[in-house]
Amino acid sequence: MRLRAHHLLCILGFRGLGYDEKFIKGMEMVIQKIKKNPDLKIRLTEGCDDICSACPFNIEGFCGNEAVGGEEAVRRKDREVGERLELGARKEYGIRRILNLIKKKIKPGDLSDICGDCPWLEMGYCEEGLRRIDKFLQEDK
Ligand code: SF4
Ligand code: SF4
Question: Which of 21, 24, 52, 71 is most deeply buried (CB count within 10 A of its CB)?
Fold first, then answer.
């Protein structure tokens, strides 16, 4: 599976909402695949990933969503998350290791720095997702 580093945080906070039906289904598929395969390897991307591939804002492989700042801002977010977790782009990591690192290195209060003005932040689901990270692999969404 290919994921942008900041999407490692978004999947924790996903509560069935999204940009359109296709996007929501895509998110659900990604999350279910992870939950069914806790030994799954995630390859971190430097651009669009398996979540972006179902997103209406994916314009020829670049993020065109101005509400989240567009491709440049999204890549900054990916770099920020990668640096905090000490994980490199274009490398593969097991999902359990990634979740353990997130638990140790990223706290709910860090999201305002990492995610900037992402419109989903104010709903509180992403912070809640971090607080419930221990249950992520067990819970059905
Ligand atoms: S606030 Fe936005 S970028 Fe941050 S984890 Fe949530 S959905 Fe992802
Ligand atoms: S908004 Fe941008 S980064 Fe987020 S899923 Fe869509 S294309 Fe990818």
Answer: 52
Interior CA angle at 121 toward 116 and 127, to 5°?
A: 110
Is the beta carbon of 63 within 6 A of some atom in ligand 2? Answer: yes
| Span 102-141, pLDDT tens digits | 999 999 999 999 998 899 999 999 999 999 999 999 877 4
Instruction: Pick left, alpha or beta for residue 37 (phi over 0 → left; psi -120 to 50 → alpha; otherwise beta).
Output: beta
Counting ligands in written order, which one lies closest to the CA of residue 3? 2
**Helix (H) or strand (E) run with residue 97 in it:** helix 95-105
pTM: 0.96
Residues 6+ apart with CB under 8 A from 39: 94, 95, 96
121 alpha carbon to ligand 1 midpoint, in Å?
6
Q: How many whole angstroms separate alpha carbon 32 and alpha carbon 12?
A: 12
Ligand 2 centroid from CA 10, angstroms:
11
User: What is the residue extent of each domain of the chain?
Assistant: 2-135
Q: Is 30 in the pocket of ligand 2 (CB under 6 A)?
A: no
Residue with the smallest CA separation from ligand 1 atom 7 is 10
